[in-house]
Write a structure and sequence with these properties.
By secondary structure, this protein is an alpha/beta fold. Helix 2 links the parallel strand 2 and strand 3. Helix 1 packs parallel to helix 12. The chain starts with a strand and ends in a 5-residue tail after the last helix.
Length: 338
């Protein structure tokens, strides 16, 4: 890709991580610019395949976005790859083509397909939907837009590793095997019960490291319950930056938790992810891709019902897809961990 190029992927954490698979299609020495929402900038800072990282403050609204579009237009990009395809990026496309018509400058613009038809069909037919009709995995879709192949679509974020990490994270980091656990997510409907995590962690032969921020209530609850049960653990909740979390993940035996951005970060750091799915399904496009990773879910026929569980229509028991998934069922799925 010798032309001056720009990639658009603004958010969210998991999507930005998966979108970096597109960078792996670039030949050695080739780089592109990238624009991302400011709160996710840390994911991409220092990436060896990114020449210049632009960030956008979403609180500035559309006036701020239009101002940034003007700045980007002045950069004379010859190729733009829209890996987001939302209202903001479509507005940028309209502005670029308008300014292009006025100036006579030519450029190419390629947008990712969200495959909404396939996703809707999967929601309707559920398990009866043939595999060939389900959405294409994002780690195939993202690289293909830049001309890559399935074999190239593997995110790698090793640039996030923190130097001198042995002295920074304490004895657990260098002296024993541990599993990183993230029990919560932004959406209540995607959270496996904290008590189920407690029961499962009692059976695992590993030290436990809890991840999350101070806004992650499930992480805080799990910390308290493990303390009550006298289970050995270390809490990184609210004390680690994203780079530090990535570094801790890189040395873990595995990641255990929901289908959040940290699950994708774990795989991008080179370890397996044991991901518990509830209302979502890995075949919606964002399932784990490492061979040693596992997608763990109940066998309910109402799955998948949406991206976050907001539309659970069960009248008997909300979120049964998660509440009905027993620790024993999950434990049997992860017996390969050693």
């Amino acid at each position: 890709m010798p032309k001056k190029s720009l990639i658009l992927r603004l958010s969210s954490l998991g999507d930005v991580i998966l979108a970096t698979s597109a960078l792996e299609t670039l030949s050695s020495g080739t780089s592109v610019d990238w624009i991302v929402a400011r709160e996710f900038r840390e994911v991409l800072e220092g990436h060896p395949r990114i020449s210049r990282l632009w960030s956008f403050d979403r609180s500035l609204g559309f006036s701020g976005w239009i101002k940034l579009c003007r700045e980007l237009w002045q950069e004379n990009y010859e190729q733009v790859f829209d890996l987001h395809f939302n209202l903001r990026t479509r507005l940028m496309k309209v502005l670029f083509f308008y300014w292009g018509l006025r100036s006579g400058r030519r450029f190419s613009w390629k947008s990712i397909s969200k495959e909404r038809g396939r996703l809707f069909l999967f929601y309707v037919l559920k398990k009866r939907c043939p595999k060939a009709w389900r959405p294409t995995p994002w780690i195939i879709r993202f690289p293909s837009l830049l001309g890559g192949t399935k074999a190239q679509g593997h995110p790698s974020l090793k640039h996030l590793l923190v130097p001198d990490s042995d002295q920074r994270f304490g004895a657990f980091y260098s002296q024993q095997k541990y599993v990183c656990v993230m029990p919560g997510s932004q959406w209540k409907g995607k959270n496996w019960p904290v008590e189920s995590y407690v029961t499962l962690l009692k059976t695992l032969p590993f030290f436990v490291v809890i991840l999350g921020t101070l806004k992650d209530g499930e992480s805080l609850q799990l910390v308290e319950r493990l303390r009550e049960e006298k289970i050995s653990f270390f809490s990184g909740v609210g004390i680690w930056s994203l780079r530090e979390t990535a570094t801790v993940l890189a040395r873990a035996v595995s990641y255990l938790g929901g289908d959040t951005g940290l699950a994708h970060l774990a795989e991008a750091m080179g370890i397996s992810a044991q991901i518990i799915f509830g209302p979502t399904d890995p075949d919606m496009g964002f399932g784990p891709w490492r061979s040693e990773s596992q997608a763990i879910a109940s066998d309910l026929g109402c799955r998948p019902c949406g991206k976050d569980g907001r539309y659970c229509y069960r009248l008997d028991e909300k979120y049964l897809c998660l509440k009905g998934l027993s620790p024993d069922q999950v434990q049997k799925k992860i017996t390969h961990l050693k």
